[in-house]
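Morning!

As promised:
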Amino acid sequence: MIPYKTLININRGGRQAIYIQIANRLIELIKYRKLPPNTKLPGSRILSELLGVHRKTVVAAYEELTIQGWLISLPQKGTFVNAHLPILKQASLVGESIRKNLTSSGFEFKRNVSLDRKFPQTCEDTYMYVNDGISDGRLAPINDIALIYRNLVSKKHITAHLAYGTTYGNQTLREELVTYLNETRGLNIGIDNIMITRGSQMGMFLAAQLLFEDNDYVVVGHTNYSSADTTFEIARAKVLRVRVDKRGLVIDDIRKCCETHNVKAVFTTSHHHHPTTVTLSADRRLELLNLAKTYKFAIVEDDYDYDFHYNHAPILPLASHDLNGHVIYVGSICKTVAPVYRVGYLVASKSFVDECAKLRRFVDRQGDALLELTFAKFIKAGYLDRHIKKVLKVYIARRDLFCSLLETELSDFFSFELPKGGMAVWVTLNKAYSWETVTQEALKQKLLIVEWQRYDMANINHNAIRMGFAAYDETEIHEFMKRLKKTMIEVSRLNGALAKG
Amino acid sequence: MIPYKTLININRGGRQAIYIQIANRLIELIKYRKLPPNTKLPGSRILSELLGVHRKTVVAAYEELTIQGWLISLPQKGTFVNAHLPILKQASLVGESIRKNLTSSGFEFKRNVSLDRKFPQTCEDTYMYVNDGISDGRLAPINDIALIYRNLVSKKHITAHLAYGTTYGNQTLREELVTYLNETRGLNIGIDNIMITRGSQMGMFLAAQLLFEDNDYVVVGHTNYSSADTTFEIARAKVLRVRVDKRGLVIDDIRKCCETHNVKAVFTTSHHHHPTTVTLSADRRLELLNLAKTYKFAIVEDDYDYDFHYNHAPILPLASHDLNGHVIYVGSICKTVAPVYRVGYLVASKSFVDECAKLRRFVDRQGDALLELTFAKFIKAGYLDRHIKKVLKVYIARRDLFCSLLETELSDFFSFELPKGGMAVWVTLNKAYSWETVTQEALKQKLLIVEWQRYDMANINHNAIRMGFAAYDETEIHEFMKRLKKTMIEVSRLNGALAKG
């Protein structure tokens, strides 16, 4: 008889009933042939004494395994390991030494190289990041949100929102956003034109999945929001790049693309081009819409920073001029409130929204109806408007401080234009230096510059990156600039040494 | 001069500053050629008097439009509509009659027929549904969850969770689930083997996207969870069907598929086959794992109802026997707690989890870290265990009532086996009748049977559907059966009339 007492460990404080623990341990012994086929198991009385458990517990375990097919019970004869169980070929290591924490898979799968981007790692608090332009979570009105959430949950009728719901998103939030977007962005939409998504990213993802077949093309700027590139590539689109100048995407370049390729969509962040922050001019907006009509392509408009404008009013999106259903307009509340709240929207013709809502069922079934309802109340009560007003004041002050320090302290190294909106500055490094060196030296100052390559997906060597200013307060911006200055002094010294050497 | 006062409506209580309202209205007038190129605009004093606003407001609007490129300002001469604006071709309807609520799109997109399933519509409360086996939202511990959530939000350090986070999901929840799954399901995983998803649906979606290239095959049962079929088809896999008998998927059929096709994955709901509720037997589990090793395919195991077992202990998933990284194990907490909380997990080899986490960034960027952290605390505090114990008692009573009424009142029409777990019964309709007729008659009794076709995607005419019992309390189950009985009496009468006629 094998040493059952040693092999069957019972955890008396565990989550699992003891009879299940015994059963599961016996399964392991059977699988790894410690208990080969046809082995007779000890009687329940004997095993219960060995293990120090009630006899009924062992009986229950044996019954369990008999139902599952691991054991067979022969009247008058006893309980045996099922003789017809196949040997588990997987058991390269038998007995006790079960391999833990599998590293590699036993099958092939796609590895999409465009997914292999380097993203910021979480690290100690003592480091500072050069970020892409993120908001400051510390300003997020989470207490307001939590209060609304708690009040909702305490209501009896709320159980209706706990079950499976529509893939279009919460009806109340859709209604609220229709009003909000029509009022603030000059849209002219009804409830059929909007679905709630998890941030603008999901809007882009759904749209891309429906837009492209193999060998279809999408046109983007030669500098572009790199996550958009990847989202389109995942959907099997091929990316064509056109110039971006001080007035945004160059429309003549897009026209040329349309003449020679099967262009299914053009991607634009018209309010402030990502990453360079320029605004698409009025005439180009109209031209782009006309071109869309001529060539029947979609315009994917990501209005990621509409709420953040400092020197002038926000500019109406292309979607506000779209009368023939060309624009797929995606936006989000996450960026404005806090990234963790993945609440966004996709606005388009009813037929396109309907298809997106169908597809969404198979992506993650639906959104979080409670959170969506919370945001509906948040917007309706005017909290969103109030929050935007509040952070705008803060961010404009941060932009001004950030840019004035960059100008006064570091103009030998960097050039930039004061951004009229958004949460980042487009900073060009003097071509005497490289971001690679800067990144290395910055690390020594506990300043992390990640992904600088992603701002130049087309390799045009503009030598610029985005520097977010919104997430740091006054003291932090001073600290940030101190580190950046130390970095550049060292980079400069190294350059000098190199030149001499 | 055009009637500015009539054409420029100002909403003084609106969200937008008045100067922006004036600017946006002028844009419309320019777009639709009410103000053609080169038109001279009235001086700011004149327009301000016409509109009853401060002169500065008009000046600000003009400046705004000049910056955006709609107007040009000539010193000493005045303000003019930019002569170089293209005509917006979209303006099929000019002037006032702007088309609202676009219905059709101006571009082509994919319409995936497999998405065109009919899903239950929300309707009046007086209707009852025949559901697929959903939980009862009224039992959901939402107050516990809201309390934890509120406590979290009140902590200062929480702001760290408001920013962008890892696409693997909240670290604390992953750690908690590793312990939980290892303890309750015999898994042997570490933190590298798990990522948090939005329900098991997102786990399946991510896995499918990575598994299949064009012309790859996935094997499923001839009855199968139809959303899985669709998820695989969206990922361009072709579905092969094999028999399902009283012991689950027929492994010999799968072997034959592997011999003739490029099988990349087999899908199983091993605990209780969806929809028929049978359990995959021990020998077949081992055979399936062996086959996976031989043919290097993935096993996508959706353990959707592991927590719900009534007559015996839950059976360890295939994932607990997987030593070579073949199993992709997806599950969720939503089904157990409430569908609205889209918290699930994907468990696999590290290499596969890593790739899923990369892909997820482009689907919806990340999960809801606050909600994930809430669930980590919910599990750690033992609330999940307690909740499962509580609902198990309720559901077993509902199953017994539901099945006994079905047996005593309706055995002329329906046959079934008592399900050992899950939240639904697999009910076969006497072949003298059709679900089409039953559905029509049931509607008259305010009993909605939707999607009955989806239980027979392979058209094998088993004449069975799932009937969920868990979402209805005792009174409701009686009411449900009353309606079903009335329906069947009428169906029977119609059948008789038809036979005579």
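The two ends of chain B are 79 Å apart (CA to CA).

Hope this helps with the figure draft.
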